[in-house]
């Protein structure tokens, strides 16, 4: 294994593995830290954790355990993957995990770059944009767990880290790899350990990757990994895939603008059932009820809790944020177990927390990376008769659910 990656959620990890596989690396995604060694053929190992919203101490401990396993596989470079919308709070978890990894690896000049132009995320003058609006105007300010209210990555990261935060602006980035490397060295000379790097084009990301050739640690969204496989002599090619027949279901827990549009479109043409959080919390609706309904439908049925942000806030105010989130994650996990037992062979999920709950519930230890469905979302084989798609809330076109099932089916 050459490149060792640590993802803070399952959808983001599959996004990263997809980027590396498309660029020619033999990539495999692992759910949690594996008990044994990786297959010798794996060039890039992505350890997917569920640490985005857990307590800081837990996030750091799990990330360091993943790093230790990756080091034992022989990796020479490491990547910490977080969301391209930089999902975190003033307490963490991006900063504390980045600090711990940097200290362990004795890494300086640590790149911080969540840009992913293919999905509309760009960093300019240290500010994160989603398409043509700043992050805090994109809908992410309404995120139920990590509301993003400041687009300045330097300001957002500063309270989370023990180290100074620098910045490499568009001038050096547009100048190419050598200019970026010189600018990183200059920022390091000013005492900065974490360095936000601008990027608005894929060419910028490839140049950043080339500049990072000798850096032990890079952090960011999957986009900044575009340029890393070439450093290891890898060449892009087709990703092999064998489709899976049988029955399919879709489960959506994301409240993002993109996912709500996808749910609305799918519900207009396919069976769809809303999961009302209050009904789950108060026991009026069970996982068995939802699973039975899904298994009774034809085509691609969808069960969703993707509500308007105002409705989400009302539920959180009434029942508490943690209780609400735990109830929905729990019901999605149990639904996944029940529909799988009922013969479902294709499962499509939307939302990082929902995807994480499903992956853990089904004990999906190793995921083989297949072709890309939409930017950042690959098809994944989880077993001889099970394939999945794990979509980050903000990713995908409006017809994502249909498109995903088409790719999974082959």
Structural write-up:
This protein has 410 residues and is of the alpha/beta class. Helices cover 39% and strands 22% of the residues. The protein contains 15 helices and 18 strands. A 15-stranded mixed sheet has the order 9-10-5-11-4-1-3-2-16-17-18-15-12-14-13, with helices on both faces. The chain has a 3-stranded antiparallel sheet with strand order 6-7-8, with no helix packed on it. A hairpin with a 2-residue loop joins strand 6 (121-124) and strand 7. The radius of gyration is 20 Å and the shape is globular.
Summarize it.
This protein is an alpha/beta fold. Helix content is 39%, strand content 22%. The radius of gyration is 20 Å and the shape is globular.
